[in-house]
Amino acid sequence: GENVEQHPSTLSVQEGDSAVIKCTYSDSASNYFPWYKQELGKRPQLIIDIRSNVGEKKDQRIAVTLNKTAKHFSLHITETQPEDSAVYFCAASIRADKLIFGTGTRLQVFP
Amino acid sequence: DGGITQSPKYLFRKEGQNVTLSCEQNLNHDAMYWYRQDPGQGLRLIYYSQIVNDFQKGDIAEGYSVSREKKESFPLTVTSAQKNPTAFYLCASSFGQSRDTEAFFGQGTRLTVV
Element (H or E) spanning A105, and its range? Predict the structure, then answer.
């Protein structure tokens, strides 16, 4: 069945440094890869997504890269700020109707 | 706030009782999902539905049941067969196959067995 692995489970960085979170998916038919941010006590919210016909997408300090051959995708956050501290989830979707999530990465940005 | 509402926010259940969690959306979304969130285990898919009167099991469906009689509603019943029901439950919806697939989440229901 579909599976998404996410690493690392926790990540601590100094403010201003970059953070990278990596995910691997199992089903080569996956064609949609969103990233969600969940702040403490709140619902997950989409921060960026990428489709399988694109290799990279950027939105200000956030970027996502996709390697279809290797079946992995990564989230890159540059110039991290304390408000970036949260749990980040990657997900993969097949047929746009079934989202499978990774196990999450707790990012802590220290001032 | 997102157009998808879960109720109640907190729920307490005695062992052996069934309990139903509500999820309603007014986003005209076709697809709806239920996830369970446990510390360190991410979001695990319980059930999902692509259209009215149709739903499929996710990875951890045992001990749960759902219905999709209306497009707007996707209630989840946690039955007494679920051995470890204490968790945070999240409902989500999206346009599914027809359009953009961004999923919007409800605010969650925290279920505690007492």
Answer: strand A105-110
- Taking only residues 25 to 64 of chain B, the set having a beta carbon closer than 8 angstroms to any beta carbon of chain A reads 31, 33, 35, 40-45, 48, 50, 56, 58-59
Summarize pLDDT for A18-35 with one digit per residue, the tens.
999 999 999 888 888 999
Which residues of chain B lie closer than 8 angstroms to A43, CB-CB?
2, 90, 105-108
For A60, B4, B20, B28, B49, the CA distances from B111, given in Å and listed in that order, are 38, 19, 10, 27, 22
Give a three-class secondary structure readout of A53-93. Answer: CCCEEEECCEEEEEECCCCEEEEEECCCCHHHCEEEEEEEE
Here the tokens at position B111 are: 């279920």
How far is the alpha carbon of B79 from chain A, nearest alpha carbon, in Å?
A: 23
Q: Which residue has the higher pLDDT, B1 or A82?
A: A82
